[in-house]
From TrEMBL:
It comes from Desulfuromonas acetoxidans (strain DSM 684 / 11070). It comes from the Bacteria. One of its GO terms (molecular function) is aldehyde-lyase activity. Keywords: Lyase, Metal-binding. One of its GO terms (biological process) is pentose catabolic process. GO terms for cellular component: cytosol. InterPro entries: Aldolase_class_II_sugar_metab, Aldolase_II/adducin_N, Aldolase_II/adducin_N_sf. This is Class II aldolase/adducin-like. SUPFAM superfamilies: AraD/HMP-PK domain-like. Residues 8-184 form the Class II aldolase/adducin N-terminal domain.
């Protein structure tokens, strides 16, 4: 099976989305770009994550043409393609309907630096204006507003997170859901005190090398 590794990852991380409470049923979507093959593995449209196997994952080329797979690709394929075109550093996209991030998206309220962990996305998580799901208008809204951020709220819709691989994109989605919940709860009892902009500059820089590094090199 072509790109069997990538297809299995999509199936596995689809189930992780549900288990982590980042979506329900078949909501949201995931994709993974293999630069060597110039192909994108993306989940099928409208199939519950619990029922998706590696064989169900669809392969498309950079223009969105299906090259392997028996199902229709995700209805949000167009904004996945737009993200890969806009950001050459991106190799994975995770789209969720996580409750707290989506609550902020329904308020058309960006997530500011209420907690330093927002640095998983950048100095804040901006909001892209509403457009109907699965449309070229939504793809263009995502393309226009992602900038150099690793997460973006989609107004009245949900969250999209990107990364150099699927684990990183998933981690961004998970951490930003936590920050969204903290922001929601802080706003419920008072006025949140934000992390200073210059401190966020330092944190964002530190996050560039956050996590385990291969100490055997260099």
């Amino acid at each position: 099976m072509k790109l069997s590794f990538e297809r299995q990852l999509i199936a596995d991380y689809g189930r992780k989305l549900v288990h982590a409470g980042l979506t329900t049923g078949s909501g949201g979507n995931l994709s993974l770009f293999n630069a060597d093959e110039n192909l994108i593995a993306i989940g099928p449209s409208g199939i519950d994550y619990a029922d998706v196997s590696a064989q169900d994952v669809v392969l498309v080329d950079r223009s969105g043409v299906v090259v392997d797979g028996r199902w229709k690709p995700s209805s949000e394929l167009s904004f996945h393609l737009a993200l890969y075109d806009q950001r050459p550093d991106v190799r994975a996209v995770v789209h969720t309907h996580s409750v707290y991030a989506t609550t902020m998206a329904c308020l058309h309220r960006e997530i500011p630096a209420v907690h330093y962990l927002v640095a998983f996305a950048g100095k804040k998580v901006p909001v892209a204006p509403y457009a109907t799901f699965g449309t070229a208008e939504l793809a263009e809204s995502v393309r226009t507003h992602i900038s150099d951020n690793n997460a973006l709220l989609l107004a009245n819709h949900g969250l999209v997170a990107v990364g150099r691989d699927l684990p990183q994109a998933f981690n961004v989605a998970e951490e930003i859901e936590l920050v969204a919940r903290i922001y929601y709860q802080a706003c419920s009892i008072g006025e949140p005190v934000l992390v200073a902009d210059e401190e966020m500059d330092r944190v964002v820089e530190k996050f560039r090398t956050y996590g385990q590094q291969d100490c055997s090199k260099g």
